[in-house]
């Protein structure tokens, strides 16, 4: 199927374009640039590479040097320490990103501008993605559907890999960590002015960990993960550039599960393959054509067997294929004006044991974007995208962002935009019964009516919680968001940054119990919730002198609520059950955020460098305030000590020293050994590591 999707795709555009008023020769070299006037380059928020300080939407850039200083191996390690971001554990889906209070399936994850597929239960596991070979990571907050379509309702995370340069270079690294965790990486590249190639090989393995040694089984799996990447560039003519990028990632894991007073072995195997081809053709100094062709496939299989007798308890599989073609034309009139227009096609297919039949969907899209600088102090970016999915009504997603620069160090930003998210395949077509957890079932909106009728006919349905005539239809979710903020110097080396945001989401899709079986287990499906509002403020303070010390601190206030629940609380219709099993009225002060979201969070970081001995030390703190972590009584509100989790802080420290071409690093994560098996199942406690790298 993947091959057919790729053959159907006909041309496309990688993020277009060139910086203003550049010559053809400088255009050819633009992608190799790492800075614009000494500042980090950003390519995710617009179709033009821009200095971070000149981006009109809230954007965070994490550089390769920062990732190495903190000893990060996987994307989850990097994002967990960034201001305003929360990495959370999802049941069955690994570690996902929570942005502006939205669940992981509302943030789009990209590699070099192309989407990463393979979400389990809506979560794309951030531990799948190695950061070796990643030049920088860009995080754009706010809806980005005007550029990327569905799934970018809350924001975008883009991993930008290194483009092969000229000459030959490479890097070898090895690391040993607690819990018999080992990481081996080899990178190499070579090239000339006309061509270049880069390859990367990575192996990460671990014996896993056990947070409950007195309970049979293990808390996390034993695994071995392999990643191979290759990136090629070829410039046969001065105005033509071709690119080809391939990535293969595979993982095998094993876990011991206690089920029905017996032990079972669960074995899983996952394969992730992606291939992207790009073309850039310049037509003089003002016109540029960009095209790309992208295909990906994700396979995941799990099998659970009894240790005694080898009986198969459960076996599941998931297969997803994705293909995309995109093309655009860019026009750079002068240093103050540029415009882009294009379109493309997307095809997707899912199958496996949890779907009654393989499902497919297609989508055509078109877009246009304009960048205008009416003066040196103002920068305006406007874009709009039209999506025509095969299963839902067409959508228009506009966005307008404005940047005002009254002085060299002062920035003021404002943006307004809309985003949308079409219902996922699982929300429409899932057909799953979890035998390992007592037999509850989850059915997609398109399947639930027939499944309930079949249960009733077989005498297996005890109670219907929602009338069946109210089930079966899902509307696409939509979001309108406003962000305002900026940067203000508080001294020669101190900068304050403040960003305020508000999201208004309609038709939010969530899981809802719709019936009860005769065995007491529930039947779940997906329904729309009318209105959800997320608002908050992110602040950060950076101290960056020219000397040895650099420090930063951030704080986020978040309030994300279901407005229907807020109104029901105001009418006195919502109750909670206390420790003595007495029903009490929920008040407005009891409800400050959806379950799993902390209203208060923050980070702090201090880096200290001793150039005389090539030593860099880094100390980081990630703090999360109290939050409701479950809804035990089904009132959609987390109230009381039994439903709340206390605040916690994770402290990480690393020290790196260079000896010529060799770099050694030691580090400790979770320095004060914070363990919570129920609420932090992915946190193994204090871990230490030792690594060494050789660059040539």
Please outline the helices and strands:
Blueprint (H helix, E strand, L loop, with lengths): L1 H7 L15 H6 L5 E2 L2 E4 L7 E2 L7 E5 H6 L5 H5 L5 E6 L3 E6 L7 E5 L2 E2 L18 E8 L3 H4 L6 E7 L5 E11 L3 E11 L3 E12 L15 E16 L2 E20 L2 E22 L3 E20 L5 E23 L2 E16 L6 E17 L2 E12 L5 E10 L6 E11 L3 H5 L1 E4 L5 E4 L4 H10 L3 E4 L12 E13 L4 E24 L4 E22 L5 E14 H8 L4 E3 L5 E3 L14 E11 L4 E10 L2 E2 L15 E2 L2 E12 L2 E8 L17 E9 L1
Parallel strand pairs: 7-10, 25-29
Antiparallel strand pairs: 1-2, 2-3, 4-9, 5-6, 7-8, 9-10, 11-12, 11-39, 12-13, 13-14, 14-15, 15-16, 16-17, 17-18, 18-19, 19-20, 20-21, 21-22, 22-23, 23-27, 24-25, 26-28, 27-28, 28-29, 29-30, 30-33, 31-32, 33-34, 34-37, 35-36, 37-38, 38-39
Describe it:
The chain is mainly β. The strands form 6 sheets. The chain has a 22-stranded antiparallel beta barrel. A 5-stranded mixed sheet has the order 4-9-10-7-8. It has a 3-stranded antiparallel sheet with strand order 1-2-3, with no helix packed on it. The protein is globular and about 70 Å long. It is built from 8 helices and 39 strands. The longest helix has 10 residues. 7% of the residues lie in helices and 56% in strands. The protein starts with a helix and ends with a strand.
């Amino acid at each position: 199927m993947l091959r057919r999707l790729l053959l159907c795709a006909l041309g496309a555009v990688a993020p277009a374009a060139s910086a203003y008023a550049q010559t053809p020769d400088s255009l050819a070299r633009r992608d190799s640039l790492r800075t614009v006037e000494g500042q980090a380059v950003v390519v995710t928020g617009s179709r033009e590479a821009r200095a971070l300080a000149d981006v009109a939407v809230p954007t965070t850039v994490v550089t390769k040097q920062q990732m190495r200083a903190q000893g990060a191996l996987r994307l989850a390690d990097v994002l967990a320490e960034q201001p305003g971001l929360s990495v959370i554990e999802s049941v069955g889906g690994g570690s996902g990103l929570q942005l502006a209070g939205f669940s992981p399936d509302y943030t789009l994850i990209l590699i070099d501008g192309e989407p990463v597929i393979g979400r389990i239960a809506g979560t794309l596991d951030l531990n799948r993605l190695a950061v070796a070979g990643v030049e920088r990571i860009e995080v754009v907050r706010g809806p980005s559907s005007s550029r990327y379509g569905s799934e970018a309702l809350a924001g975008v995370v883009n991993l930008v890999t290194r483009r092969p340069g000229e000459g030959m270079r490479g890097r070898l690294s090895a690391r040993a960590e607690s819990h018999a965790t080992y990481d081996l990486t080899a990178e190499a590249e070579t090239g000339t002015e006309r061509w270049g190639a880069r390859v990367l090989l990575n192996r990460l393995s671990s014996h896993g960990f056990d947070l409950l040694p007195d309970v049979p089984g293990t808390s996390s799996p034993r695994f071995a993960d392999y990643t191979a990447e290759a990136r090629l560039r070829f410039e046969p003519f001065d105005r033509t550039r071709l690119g080809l990028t391939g990535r293969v990632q595979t993982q095998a894991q094993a876990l011991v599960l206690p089920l029905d007073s017996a032990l079972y072995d669960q074995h899983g195997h996952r394969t992730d393959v992606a291939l992207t081809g790009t073309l850039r053709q310049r037509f003089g100094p003002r016109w540029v054509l960009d095209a790309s062709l992208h295909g990906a496939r994700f396979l995941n299989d799990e099998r659970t067997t009894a240790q005694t007798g080898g009986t198969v308890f459960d076996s599941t599989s998931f297969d997803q294929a994705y293909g995309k073609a995109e093309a655009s034309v860019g026009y750079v009139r002068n240093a103050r004006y540029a415009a882009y227009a294009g379109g493309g096609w997307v095809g997707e297919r899912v199958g496996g044991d949890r779907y009654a039949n393989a499902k497919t969907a297609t989508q055509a899209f078109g877009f246009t974007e304009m960048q205008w600088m009416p003066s040196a102090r103002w920068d305006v970016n406007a874009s709009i995208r039209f999506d025509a999915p095969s299963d839902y009504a067409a959508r228009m997603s506009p966005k307008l962002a404005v940047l005002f620069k009254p002085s060299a160090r002062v920035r003021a930003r404002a943006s307004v935009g809309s985003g949308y998210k079409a219902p996922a395949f699982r929300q429409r077509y899932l057909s799953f019964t979890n035998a390992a957890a007592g037999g509850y079932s989850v059915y997609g909106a398109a399947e639930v009516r027939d499944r309930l009728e079949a249960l009733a006919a077989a005498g297996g349905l005890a109670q219907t919680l929602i009338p069946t005539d109210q089930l079966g239809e899902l509307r696409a979710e939509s979001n309108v968001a406003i962000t305002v903020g900026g940067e203000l110097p508080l001294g020669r080396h101190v900068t304050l940054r403040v960003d305020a945001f508000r999201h208004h989401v309609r038709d939010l899709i969530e899981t809802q119990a719709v019936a009860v079986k005769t065995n007491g287990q529930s039947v779940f499906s997906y329904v729309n919730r009318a209105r959800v509002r997320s608002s908050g403020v992110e602040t950060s303070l950076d101290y960056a002198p020219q000397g040895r010390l650099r420090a930063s601190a951030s704080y986020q206030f978040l309030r994300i609520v279901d407005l229907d629940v807020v109104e029901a609380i105001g009418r006195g219709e919502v109750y909670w059950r206390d420790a003595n099993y007495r029903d009490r009225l929920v008040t407005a002060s009891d409800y400050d955020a959806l379950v799993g979201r902390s209203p208060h969070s923050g980070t702090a970081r201090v880096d200290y460098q001793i150039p005389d001995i090539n030593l860099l030390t880094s100390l980081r703190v990630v703090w999360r305030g109290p939050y409701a972590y479950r809804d035990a009584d089904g009132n959609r509100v987390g109230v009381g000590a039994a439903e709340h989790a206390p605040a916690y802080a994770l402290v990480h420290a690393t020290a790196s020293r260079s000896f010529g071409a060799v770099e050694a690093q030691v580090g400790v994560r979770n320095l004060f050994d914070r363990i919570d098996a129920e609420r932090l199942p992915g946190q193994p406690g204090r871990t230490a590591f030792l690594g060494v790298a050789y660059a040539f």
